[in-house]
Amino acid sequence: MTGIKSYGAYVPKYRLGKETAGWGFPAEKAVANFDEDSITMAVAAGMDCLRGIDRSQVDGILYATTTSPYVEKQGAALIAAALDLRRDITSADVTDVLRAGTTALKMAMDAVQAGTASNILVIASDCRMATPKGGLDRAMGDGAVALLIAKDGVAAEVEADYHITDHMLDVWRSSDESTVRSWEDRFVIEEGILRVIPEAVSAFMAKNNLAPKDFQKAAYHSSDARRHAALAKMMGFEAAQVQDPLYDQMGNTGAAFPLMLLVAALEEAKTGDRIMVAGYGDGCDVYSIKAGEGIDKLRQGHRGVKKHVEAKRVLETYDEYLRWRGLMTVAGVRRPTASGPSASALWRETDRVIQMYGSKCRKCGYVQFPPQRVCVECHAKDEMDNVRLSDKPATVATYAMDYLSGTTDVPLVIAVINFKGGGRMLSMMTDRETGELSVGMPVEMSFRKIRSAGGIHNYYWKSTPVRA
Question: Read out DSSP for 382-448?
Answer without folding.
Answer: S-EEEEE-TT--EEEEEEEEESSS--SSSSEEEEEEEETTS-EEEEEE-S--GGG--TT-EEEEEEE
